[in-house]
Amino acid sequence: DAMLLFDEMHDRNVVTSNVMITGLVKWGKLEFASFLYDEMPEKNVVSWTGIIDGYIRSNMYSEGLSLFQRMVLCEGIKPTEITILAILPAISNMWGSKRKNLVSWKSIISGFAMHGTWKEAGEYFERMEKIGLRPNRATFLSVLNACSHGGLFDGGLRFFDKMVNKHGVSPDIEHYGCLVDMLGITGRLEEAENMAFYGNIEMGERVTRKIMEMETGYGGDYVLMYNNFAGAGRFEDAERLRRLTNERNAFKLPGNSFV
């Protein structure tokens, strides 16, 4: 049979192994498929999808989602449309049972974001909240990344506001970076600067540097950073920034000045 033929093959590769895993899963031979999967020295998204599908077909939703978590969060492998379709029964089961597993939800949100289904990432984040799970920094970063890549600024701003004001989660440079990216795409860099501070000079400096990298000829960011340094009594840093401005020949927008 196919298994005997496969055992006799000398030149096994990812493609032939994937074909066998897919076939074994369809024949209900999950144990053999899992063994073959574990023995594979190299795996791709087809390998992961095949074994995930096997566990979910066998109603072993926890195991299937655990593998999906490893694929997305640990291996950084981007799921395909087939992968997303494979995990849908497990997601429905998790939603119906109100299973409280933050890592599972984060992996699902990340998976949707990586696949480019940004709207769904936001929807599942809100579903997660409805069952009483409290999102953390990593979960918020996943949904902000989804909004950033999808150009969903209004949604991203709403999630950011929820993170800070509803859940009391302090944003870090990565969260701000997502907002800066969203605002930069829509040509709203000045608004990005104003969001960068919240009274935190160090954070503001890092975010402003990110803005500088995006558009080196824009002078408003230099002015804002200069004023914040001066206001905090960091005059040496302010003077250093003034010199950097002269070196880059950044122009000042009307109404902005180094005074």
Automatic annotation (TrEMBL):
MF (Gene Ontology): RNA binding
Organism field: Populus alba
PPR repeats: 13-43, 44-79, 101-135, 136-171
One GO biological process term: RNA modification
InterPro entries linked: E_motif, PPR_At4g14850-like_plant, PPR_rpt, TPR-like_helical_dom_sf
Protein name: Pentatricopeptide repeat-containing protein
PANTHER family named among the record's database cross-references: OS01G0815900 PROTEIN, PENTATRICOPEPTIDE REPEAT-CONTAINING PROTEIN
NCBIfam families named among the record's database cross-references: PPR
Top-level taxon in the UniProt lineage: Eukaryota
UniProtKB keywords: Repeat
